[in-house]
Write a structure and sequence with these properties.
The complex is a heterodimer of chains A (about 260) and B (about 425).
Chain A lengths: L13 H29 L17 H11 L9 H10 L2 H6 L1 H32 L8 H32 L1 H6 L2 H25 L12 H18 L8 H11 L5
Helix pairs in contact in A: 1-9, 5-6, 6-8, 8-9
Chain B lengths: L14 H7 L7 H5 L1 H5 L8 H16 L1 H6 L6 H12 L6 H5 L6 H15 L9 H9 L26 E4 L2 H5 L2 H13 L4 E2 L10 H5 L8 H15 L4 E4 L2 H15 L6 E4 H10 L12 E5 L13 H9 L3 E3 L18 H4 L1 H16 L5 E4 L2 H13 L6 E4 H8 L13
Parallel strand pairs in B: 1-2, 1-3, 3-4, 5-6, 5-7, 7-8
The chains are: A mainly alpha (about 260), B alpha/beta (about 425).
Chain lengths: ~260, ~425
């Protein structure tokens, strides 16, 4: 049982596979509807300075963004590649203000993105395997290959989360300013990470399994997947998670910012 | 079922700005640097982060998921009134934009929110509504006859009818702090640079109307910008010099937007022009200062808004007898003087509080002179200096110091410094 599922979709776990596929579809639909609402909301703005508000078309925002990107800046403009690499990927603006906050955010960002991509890859490998197309690596082999990388990025993510929680708890200025909008983001992130560690720990019998029986591994994994789909995808447009989309776009729109 | 109308509209906000509101991560960096939040005794509503969060909530209540399903949820009027007070409690210094980790262009966001609230019937505050009447009627915010714009011109100053260079004096220098206009005109004459001016045809640059969200009322701002641009073109100028940071920023950024066209001339701040002349070896200082220590306050509209940081410093460093020292907070990290964004007219106590802190920043370096490159900064820093009783601190504009170092006599100038 221990290694009969990987991303949760092997033959032995067909029910889980169906559940995961249904949940993933629901999560994506919820996400898309949320983004539709956001695009409609943003689309109520004008297409440029001094113009009348638009009527909420979902095309207004991309049009306005494209127009703004094509405009010259006033003393602060910079090359789009510099913006993408230094300000969005390497998060230079955070580094300038606080190296600790940068370390916290970059570890969360890198850990989150790496785990997300690896989960997708594992999912893809298992799908290919189940389709009997004869392409792609064996899921068991691929999982073993990913295992140490997964562990590494899980701990990178955990490091960032611990710093974030500690800042909210022990820095008075941060603690006093924390509202539900912030707590839900951090709480969701913590829940995903911890359930990931626990489900993996039960499956492999490590410290994180907390001595729980091996048969609890599949439901634990399923719970982790549900939570991840909920917070990773579905909840993004309705919460502070929207900053994962809006902040890079803002930096891009303002050519790296002031 | 009859649904309520949303409490707020999206008037004056662009689609990108509405997205920017959702990009705030609430990191709190802006709160730590906001000069008015600081000077107000840390009034929570003035924190930039808080303003963004509130508008985000208003948007959700008006146009979010719940509003789509069940209709908009009303925002109490008193809440919007309080929000207005807080949005106007900002000097538009752009410090929050500089430190924003998400790169939000906060200044334009506040200005857009103000314009939105003006249309809604809430804004502006204090004496700010007078700007519309005064600028609309007199072409300046000082209720002065347009003829007074040239009343300061002394007999020895030669102003061409047409020239390649036009000096745009600005309302404050021409009608109040005339020493600045005197100094600029005489410096240009001294350097044998032919220049022209718009004279009584000059209109207010409209910075006050743009910053306070009143630029669409009666179309005054656009009409004034049109008159100025057409006037400058008629004078044959290809370079326009500004000694006022507020006018400079407005001409550079806001005029093209108001008119929807690129300007057919170059916009240059006087310090940029002097910097170039120094590089070309065309300035010979004749009257060194007597070993004075000087520091420089970056005007927000010249520095953070458009990135002119070095030219003023280069001018001051090149003047003999001046020992230039920097304050701790300079350039893009500078602290605002407190006058901008209509705060001086709207909430004078707040403006004074910020000015006092900036003067304290300067006093920490023991200078004899606190200089700047903006008449409005000079005025508020003078108020701050008087308030903290730093009687020995001279507050002076770079162009006046330049004139003095060139040996130009300004003693015949009647300066209404306030």
């Amino acid at each position: 049982m221990a290694m009969e599922y990987y991303a949760g979709i092997s033959d032995a776990m067909r029910i889980t596979f169906v559940q995961v596929m249904i949940l993933a579809t629901i999560a994506i639909v919820i996400f898309l509807y949320g983004m539709y609402i956001n695009l409609k909301k943003w689309g109520l703005g004008a297409e440029s300075y001094g113009q009348k508000p638009s009527k909420g078309s979902i095309f207004t925002f991309p049009k306005t963004l494209a127009y703004q990107l094509s405009e010259d800046g006033h003393g602060h403009g910079q090359n789009i590649i510099v913006t993408l690499v230094l300000d969005i990927l390497l998060q230079r603006r955070i580094m300038r203000r606080s190296p600790l906050r940068w370390f916290m955010h970059i570890t969360i960002f890198v850990g989150w993105m790496a785990l997300f991509i690896m989960s997708l890859l594992m999912f893809l490998v298992e799908l290919l395997h189940m389709a009997h197309l004869g392409i792609g690596p064996e899921p068991a082999v691929f999982r073993e290959f990913l295992s140490p990388i997964n562990d590494l990025f899980s701990y990178i993510l955990l490091t960032g989360i611990i710093i974030a929680i500690a800042r909210r708890l022990f820095i008075p200025r941060m603690r006093e300013a924390t509202i539900a909008y912030d707590s839900i983001l951090l709480g969701g992130l913590t829940l995903i990470t911890v359930t990931g560690f626990i489900s993996d720990g039960i499956r492999n019998g490590t410290f994180w399994g907390m001595g729980l029986e091996n048969h609890l591994a599949p439901p634990a994994a399923l719970f982790h997947v549900i939570i991840s789909l909920l917070f990773c995808i579905a909840y993004i447009p309705y919460s502070k998670y929207i900053h994962m989309i809006a902040s890079p776009l803002t930096i891009l729109a303002n050519k790296g910012g002031e | 079922m009859v649904r309520d109308n949303p409490s707020i509209t999206t008037e004056n906000l662009t689609a990108v700005q509405l997205m920017e509101i959702d990009s705030c991560t609430r990191c709190g960096e802006c709160v730590q640097w906001c000069p008015t939040y600081d000077a107000s005794g840390k009034k929570p509503g003035l924190a930039p982060r808080d303003k963004i969060l509130r508008w985000q909530e208003y948007m959700k209540k008006s146009y979010g998921l719940r509003a789509r399903l069940f209709g908009p949820k009303q925002v109490p009027e008193e809440e919007i009134e309080q929000f207005k007070e807080d949005v106007y409690g900002c000097t538009t210094c752009a410090m929050c934009a500089t430190v924003c980790e998400s790169g939000i262009n906060t200044v334009e966001l506040w200005e857009a929110m103000r314009a939105n609230l003006v249309k809604r019937g809430n804004g502006p505050v204090g004496k700010q509504p007078m700007f519309v009447k005064l600028i609309g009627e007199y072409g300046n915010p000082y209720m002065a006859d347009p003829k007074e714009r040239i009343s300061w011109v002394p007999d020895d100053v030669k102003i061409e009818d047409k020239a390649d260079i036009l000096y745009f004096g600005g309302c404050t220098a021409e009608l109040r702090q005339k020493k600045l206009a005197f100094a600029t005109a005489r410096v240009l004459n001294h350097l044998d640079i032919p220049f022209t001016m718009l004279g009584e045809d000059e209109q207010c640059c409209n910075s006050a109307l743009v910053r306070t969200g009143q630029y669409e009322i009666e179309d005054i701002s656009r009409k004034s910008a049109r008159k100025n641009v057409d006037g400058i073109k008629a004078k044959g100028a290809t370079k326009v010099l500004f000694a006022c940071a507020g006018c400079y920023r407005t001409a550079l950024v806001d005029w093209p937007r108001l008119l929807g066209e690129e300007l057919p001339f170059e916009i240059i701040h006087i310090t940029e022009y002097l910097d170039k002349l120094i590089d070309e070896g065309k300035i010979n200082w004749k009257q060194p200062f007597d070993n004075k220590t000087i520091t420089y306050h970056d005007p927000c509209h010249l520095g953070r808004h458009v990135g002119v940081f070095e030219p003023p410093r280069k001018v001051l460093r090149s003047i003999p007898g001046l020992n230039f020292v920097e304050m701790d907070r300079i350039k893009d990290n500078q602290r605002c003087c407190g006058a901008g964004g209509g705060v001086k007219a709207g909430i004078p106590d707040l403006a004074l509080g910020v000015a006092e802190t900036r003067v304290e920043d300067a006093l920490a370096k023991n200078p004899d002179i606190l200089s700047s490159a903006c008449p409005f900064c000079k005025r508020n820093l003078c108020d701050g200096r008087d308030s903290v009783k730093a009687d020995n601190l001279e507050v002076e504009d770079i162009i006046v110091l330049t004139a003095e170092a060139l040996g130009i006599d300004l003693s015949d100038c009647e300066d209404q410094a306030r």
